[in-house]
Amino acid sequence: MAQTRNRAGLLSILAVFVMGFAACDGDIGIGPVNQLEVTNAADNFQFQVSAMESVSETLSYTWQNSGTQATIDISQAITSGSAILTIRDANGTTVHQEDIAEDNDTDTAVGVAGSWSIEVEIESATGTFNFRVQTTT
């Protein structure tokens, strides 16, 4: 009888483990191997992540922009997946949204100066990328 309970308990633990593993979907978050570097200074924001292999994570930052527009410079080597960069002005209006894999250096739309938000949504991405957002002078 005790052996039957132990088997039932073991099967329950195994079922929870399998369900938890399946929920991971094989993607992992950013870890030390990815050498995440973020510089968040007034009027100058820089982000870099490397050595990603099937990484999924969303990162959000508040950035001080004294201007009403910003220049975006992107350098990337993403071989699969996506990394969506979304920038919102101080009113929460989206002034830029694009997949970083497009490697499109551009300017944001004109917005309201103050506390802007920068969000990077990485989905099953493999590779490396960096970008810089600076107040347009």
General description of the model:
- By secondary structure, the chain is an alpha+beta fold.
- The protein has a single domain, classed as Jelly Rolls (Sandwich), CATH 2.60.120.380.
- It is 17% helix and 55% strand.
- The chain contains 1 helix and 6 strands; from the N terminus they run αββββββ.
- It has one helix at residues 2-24; strands at residues 37-41, 44-65, 70-88, 94-99, 106-107, 114-135.
- Strands 1, 2, 3, 4, 5 and 6 form a 6-stranded antiparallel β-sheet that branches.
- The longest helix has 23 residues, at 2-24.
- It is elongated.
- It starts with a helix and ends with a strand.
- Mean pLDDT is 86; it is low at 10-24.
Helix content: 10-25%
Q: How far apart lie the N and C ends? A: 78 Å
List low-confidence stretches. Answer: 10-24
- The secondary-structure element order is HEEEEEE
CATH class: Mainly Beta
The biggest beta sheet reads: 6 strands, antiparallel
CATH topology term: Jelly Rolls
**What class would the helix/strand composition place it in?**
alpha+beta
Summary, kept brief:
The chain is α+β, with helices and mostly antiparallel strands. The chain has one helix and six strands.
Q: Which key phrases capture this entry?
A:
137 residues, alpha+beta, Jelly Rolls, six-stranded antiparallel sheet, elongated
List the helices and strands and how they pair.
Layout (H helix, E strand, L loop, with lengths): L1 H23 L12 E5 L2 E22 L4 E19 L5 E6 L6 E2 L6 E22 L2
Antiparallel strand pairs: 1-2, 2-6, 3-4, 3-5, 3-6
